[in-house]
Design brief:
- This protein is α/β, with parallel strands linked by helices and 219 residues long.
- 19% of the residues are buried.
- The protein is built from seven helices and ten strands.
- It has one domain: Dihydrofolate Reductase, subunit A (3-Layer(aba) Sandwich).
- The strands form two sheets. It has an eight-stranded mixed beta sheet, with helices on both faces. It has a two-stranded antiparallel sheet with strand order 2-8.
- A hairpin with a 5-residue loop joins strand 9 and strand 10.
- Helices cover 28% and strands 26% of the residues.
Length: 219
Amino acid sequence: MTLLLSFPSVMEYYPRVGSTKEDRGIHHKQKIQTMRKVILNLAVTLDGFIEGPNGEVDWCRMEQDSGSEPFFDKFLSGIDTIFYGRISYDMWGQYQPAENALPAEKKLWDAVHSKKKYVFSRNPKEDNKAIYIGSGIALRVNEIKTEPGKNIWLYGGANLITEFINAGLVDNYLLAVFPVILGAGKPVFSNITKRTGLTLNSVEGSDSGVVLMSYDARR
């Protein structure tokens, strides 16, 4: 699938650059390199599942002093936008933790809800807390990536993740691998139509056994 990227005029961003073809090419390349990234950040079990057979996610609860909290704090400080599928948004887009939840969990959700939210759905609706996108996903995503701002979190769900991967819209894969084996459930990757090469950026461990792995998609 060929994607068409929509960029404003180079001269809008570099009004003082020369008019030679070489100058335009150099600065156009710089603009591309500074585009916002779409980051798929997911918690996944050691055997590759994001949910148990009955939708269980209790295995990835944040625990006090687990060592997992700094991972997410750092990630959330680097994004200002979240992409949801409709089901994921309905479940988690306005989620509020229980009154007796850990302070770290409350802080996490406060940070999540401070971000700009887009919902990808074939049945858009009015919502003053999110912007709905019902068609032209690839074009709209690439337009958003050229806008000023921080990186973008691809939250999910599974169908949206598959669509983004197959369209080549994921720039970075940030997977938090939890030390648990479920044996069955919803796999992190399914119905992928082509091979995607990845380059390892980093691996970080924690006292809890959670390992954070960062990969860039090869272009």
